[in-house]
Amino acid sequence: MTPEEMQAAIEALQGLSNTNLEIFYYWCTAIMILIHAGFLMYEMGASRVKHSLASGTKNILAFAFMIPTFYMFGWLIYLSMWQGFTYDPVWGEFGLPMSAIMGPNMADQATGVFWGAFTLFACTTASILSGAVIERIRMASFVVLAVILGSVVWNLAASWGWHPAGWLVTEFGYHDAVASGVVHTISGFFALGVLINLGPRIGKFNTDGSANVIRGHSLPMTITGLMLIVVGFFGFIGACVLYNYGTNGGWVNIYGGPTTLSAYLFNTLMAVAGGIIGCYACTRDPFWMMSGALCGVISAAAGLDLWYPPLAFAIAFAGGFLGPWAAKQIEKMGIDDAVGAVAVHGVCGVWGLLAVGIFLGGYPGFSSWDGFEVPPINMTGQVVGAAVMIATGFIPGYVLSWIFNKLGILRAGDGVQRDGMDNELEGIAYPEEIRSR
User: Fold this and answer.
1) Which domains are delineated in the chain?
2) pLDDT per 10-residue tile (average), the chain, 437 residues
3) Sign of the CA dihedral with 384 first, then 385, 388, and 393 last
4) How far apart are CA 29 and CA 35, in angstroms?
């Protein structure tokens, strides 16, 4: 084979690899949509009949509004704000909606599928918020809050801590391979800020402060929805790995550190099982047992690329205990989180970040960007990262919802809540019209 023929063969293989990777991320994004089908079922089932369609509609609208807003400015924020609040015009150019690579004839076989995966990450943050606020938030206000969370706030956090040159990574060695912090902690604490101003559902708390159980109309629907979210997580997790074309090639984590798809699969399945069993050990509530799968994956997610599988199981098992306990403490504070989103995503997300500091301290840091040295994983970096994620989520969630509340546009009126939020929509959930439940 002549040198020219060899070079042609190499280029052909490179093109084939690009195509295969484009297909891989394409289908990861498609599988991620199951997360939103799951959230829709989960939240509709957790709502009473008279609110069920409104709960589903919130998910549909959040999904739809996130896509164009992420195209217009969300992707730009992620690519360009990795230094903090300083805009990088070089990388920002690649995220501008009028950029040449943000169109149908792009030649890099990467931008579109990566943008799609990040858009679905953004949609996930909105779905997390959606469950916490069912049965009482105004639809338009929810959509605005969801867009701010998914197309602005989450992108900042991801640019800082989920980017190979992000300042949390390069200055502190922050490690969050599958987004315990940059998706789940952000969303959970944004939801907490909103819930404080939104207030509880009518009838949730008695005059003495004790809480009543408000049951959804279909626990089987909720449990099935939770299982669909778990299925969708496999697309989410697959989209958190990259392929390095370096000397040896191979899969790398979001920062450029070595990993394998086998590592992600081992640890994901162990985390699902650990979380379910952890919840089963402390409650026989099927809702929490299936929510335990989420608690487990979120608890293990930050180090999913590096855990020894039995350790992933143990961390997830602890998360399975932590989720229901945290939900009870939040309820005792007079906060009505209808599905435990703050506990499952926010509290377990923080536990996931701290677990990396506890068990992976000293592991080398990596950056796929030349010129950036990353400190080894360390507890200080994980604590700083967790604090940044909590503040970045909570502060805008609280401030924006406080403003909306003062304007009288955050919470639906008491009459609407009593009659059912579905009365503002066309259609009925069930032909029997069991509207009083």
Assistant:
1) 18-204+215-424 (1.10.3430.10)
2) 43 49 88 95 95 94 96 94 91 87 73 91 96 96 97 96 94 96 98 98 94 94 96 94 66 90 96 97 91 97 97 98 96 96 98 98 88 93 98 98 98 94 86 56
3) negative
4) 10
CA dist 278 and 272 (Å) reads 10
pTM recorded for the entire structure: 0.93
Count Cβ neighbours within 10 Å for each residue of 325-336 and write b for 16 or more, e otherwise: ebbeebbeeebb
- Write the Ramachandran bin of 340: left for phi over 0, alpha for psi from -120 to 50, otherwise beta: left
Pick from 50, 71, 73, 46: which is nearest to 59 by CA? 46
- Nearest-5° Cα angle at 16, 14 to 17: 65
Q: What angle do CA 178, 39, 163 make, to 5 degrees?
A: 25
In whole angstroms, give the CA distance from residue 374 to residue 381: 11
In this structure, what DSSP letter does residue 368 have? Answer: S
